[in-house]
Amino acid sequence: MNATGATITSVTVVPMRLRFHEPFAVTSGVRTHLETVLVRLTSSDGTVGWGEASPDEGVTGESPTACVEALDGVLAEAVVGRGADDVDALGSSIDDAAGGAGPAARAAVDIAVHDAAARRRGVPLWRFLEDRIVAGGGTRVGRDHLQVSRVVSMDDPEVMAARAATHVRAGFSTVKLKVGDPEDWRRDVERVAVVRAAVGPDVGIKVDVNQGWRTAEMAVAAVAAMAESRPLFVEQPVDRRDLAGLAEIRRQVPQVPIMADEAVGSAEDLGRIVALGAADIVNLKVMRLGGLRAAIAADAVAVAAGMRSQIGTMIESSIGSAAGLHLATALASVAFVEMGGPLMLAEDPGDLARCYRGETVTLPDGPGLGVTPRPPFRFS
Ligand SMILES: [Mg+2]
To answer: How does pLDDT run across 129-185, given as a tens digit for each residue?
Structure first.
């Protein structure tokens, strides 16, 4: 469909370095800034769409520089001059450029394409996405409020407990703990136990290992020992390629749900995980999957398997976070939502943080993403 006859006329790419309120530590190191890339797509009828690539060498396999090169090159070529309303034809064209572009770069242009199309129709992005899912086989009724969790980076158990308690006092009923010490899984068990003692019995605790434990045997021991702290789930305990290990952990410690995260780069990956019985929950990250269209395809696999999902984040500014929140509102499998980037950034090109009240996010009701970057981020 190309209802208006509008075509895409340009893609503008702007790399940004945004400071965190507090340094953020995961297994792979400590980060003080978010390296992210904004994309502005213009159409012949004047409609603008925004997107974001938040790459991570260890997860999406891309550097910010590689994202800029792909967006300026093969991805701009894939969309400029094409009909702006035909999201599927644009998606195919973006997929065809995949050899020269990583998933975060593809996600950026895919988000911008969807944002522009929704703005042209005058509807919020979640409504636009939901219509597309319904047209493809049917799912859910939309919501306009979402509950998000805060993340606590890996540190000494007492430091993590203090941070978790701060988030609970600020109105969060769920916290996510980054663990994954390859040398000392017992320390990770202690981290979760000390946080549980600090926050009390009613707060939800998500545990993310980020592939940190070296073997499935180590992970079985750790997850079994963590069970008494009652985590909501344990995310990606072992290497992303070790699907048999994931399945084994799930078989040996059935009382703790296992989430696949880094292991899921596509709907096909998720299909393999379903076939092996390797996870209870899947973390759908727009940046790793390569965009909203790919996330909708993965959601369909999850729904068919009766699997719940989480809409996760690489940590993104207001643009990428808004895309994730709209997606979470539209998809049927979603049980958990992250998208806490706007709360973690001291610098953000958009103002999505205004939509967060404690753990509740009320989506902006304007067309498209409902968020537009503001100065000093100017574009010609
Ligand atoms: Mg994760």
So the answer is: 988 886 444 444 446 678 999 999 999 999 999 999 999 999 999 999 999 999 999
Buried b (16+ CB within 10 A) or exposed e, 246-274: bbbbbeebeebbbbbbbbbbbbebbeebb
The vertex-86 CA angle with 82 and 92, nearest 5°, equals 75
**CA of 31 relative to ligand 1 center, distance in Å:** 16
Among residues 285, 288, 293, 326, which one is catalytic?
285
pTM (global) more than 0.90: yes
d(CA 125, CA 363): 10
Give which of 266, 211, 212, 257 is closest to 234, Cα–Cα.
257
Q: Which of 167, 176, 178, 191 is catalytic?
A: 178
Predicted confidence at residue 354, as pLDDT, reads 95
In the residue annotation, 178 being an active-site residue is answered as: yes
User: 3-state DSSP call for residue 234?
Assistant: strand
Q: How far is C-alpha 309 from the chain's CA centre?
A: 11
The residues near 217 (Cβ < 8 Å, ≥ 6 apart) are none
- How much of the chain, in percent, has pLDDT values that exceed 90? 85
Per-residue pLDDT of 234-264, as tens digits, reads 999 999 999 999 999 999 999 999 999 999 9
From the CA of 242, how far away is ligand 1's center (Å)? 15
176 is catalytic: no
Å from CA of 134 to ligand 1 middle: 29
Name all domains of the chain by residue range, CATH numbers in brackets: 8-122 (3.30.390.10), 145-362 (3.20.20.120)
CA of 237 to the centre of ligand 1 (A): 9
Give the Å distance between the CA of 261 and the centre of ligand 1.
5
59 Cα to the center of ligand 1, angstroms:
10
